[in-house]
Amino acid sequence: MLFKELLPQSSHEFANLEIKGITCNSKEVTDGFVFVCIKGAKTDGHRFAKSAAESGAAVIVAEEDTGLANQIIVEDTHKAYSLMCANWFGKPANSLKLVGVTGTNGKTSVTYMIKSILENEGYKVGLIGTIQNMIGDKIIAAKNTTPDAYELNSLFSLMKAEGCEYAIMEVSSHALDQKRVCELNFETAVFTNLTQDHLDYHITMENYLGAKKKLFKMCKTAIINSDDEYSEALMEGLDCNIITCSASDNSTYSAKGINYRPTAVDYQLVSDEGLNHITVNTGGKFSVYNSMFAVITAKILGIPVENSTKALAKFEGVKGRAEVVPTGKDFTVIIDYAHTPDGLKNILSTFRDCPKNRLISLFGCGGDRDKTKRAIMGSVAVRYSDYVIVTSDNPRSEEPMAIIEDILEGTRGSNKPVKVIGNRIEAIKFAISIAEKDDIIVLAGKGHETYQILKEGTIHLDEREVVKEALAELNS
pLDDT (tens digit, 9 = 90+) per residue, 87-132? Predict the structure, then answer.
């Protein structure tokens, strides 16, 4: 491909150079590549421009002078990289109908529900998200919630080649802020909610909201959770079609007559078009919202609500999202990805109101991430649980006990029992060992993850395996 085909607006002496590849990682550069200097949160690609040139880069795309003869200066390398990656793969996203889902919590469940509904209608669907990427039933490992522009367009290209009509994707605030998706046009975009998270990156909630809002400036129709406190600010100034939904107040769509059960929920979806009864095989208010988003999205895409309700009735849930672990015992173990204050509140309040003996929560907080949410999560845990076990999540470069001390600040003054066990495996085994008849144990934070990131490196940790081992020890 010629360089001018990658960056059409560039009239330059390198326009007719034959390009063999494109990357923003200097370690991947070989002869004939374009190297794009990206400024990241931890490092600046401009620092590696010289080494990329020495490795054979034909063109260096930069925002500032690198002192190299083969450089091209652009205003925004994030945007340029996104455009070039799309062009490199022949703009495959233009052949797909895109649905984007953004918000602090619920993105994964909503995308899986939409995929399930579309597939029930006979469509082949691609999915991009936190747990994994998928083309139909084929699974492709995921590194980030939203991949970088090159990997993203590579996935779109595979989806197109394999006959997908739709691509359903989680769109993270990082991806929006870093313009990884700036060249895309979405049929529909969903806003689930906005609660405290990622402030280590965005610094303020206003910045966090601003990043999310970018998605709704590149879609035809926005589906907005009007119960969220940020919904009005999000909708302000949008020129797309807006549909609101609520689990309480009157909106375009609302949920009435909600019936909560431990592992399911059903309700009436109300709109000007009438009533539709919906049943979802996961409990909690969040399941009401998630299913509403999915059904409304499908309707916009031309699928009757009655068809969607039938598909959702068969939907088996998502790994690590309110996942019930078989124990063969008279107590219940739930694994959930809740890693934010609101996420923890949602999962605990879901089971708080269920018939039970005790609600036992086990959680930690990630290292090298927003520290301000730690004490808040501690206070949420003691408010909604009967017994709290504070342990490690992914401590990364931080000391696990330092993170735990931050969490414990939020538990001060509570009369609820709080147990500290730094080793997550031992903490889970302890939770199983103290379980009594009709207890509900919620293991929060890891969800679908089967690893733990420590200062020393990444280790294997699948909570399902730990529970199984703990049960075996209990029976021995």
Answer: 999 999 999 999 999 998 889 999 999 999 999 999 999 999 988 9
- Report the largest interatomic distance among the alpha carbons of the chain, rounded to a whole angstrom: 76
Separation between Cα atoms, residue 186 and residue 156, nearest integer Å: 13
Give the contacts of 253 (CB within 8 A, at least 6 positions apart).
243, 244, 245, 246, 269, 270, 271, 292, 296
Among 2.60.40.10, 3.80.10.10, 2.60.120.330, 3.90.190.20, what is the CATH number of 323-475? 3.90.190.20
Burial class (CB in 10 A: 0-12, 13-18, 19+), 257: exposed
Place domain 3-88 in its CATH homologous superfamily. Answer: MurE/MurF, N-terminal domain (3.40.1390.10)
Under 8 Å between Cβ of 153 and 181: no
Rg of the chain, C-alpha, whole Å: 24
Separation between Cα atoms, residue 99 and residue 420, nearest integer Å:
42
- pLDDT tens track for 394-420: 999 999 999 999 999 999 999 999 999
92-314: CATH topology: UDP-N-acetylmuramoyl-L-alanine:D-glutamate ligase (3.40.1190)
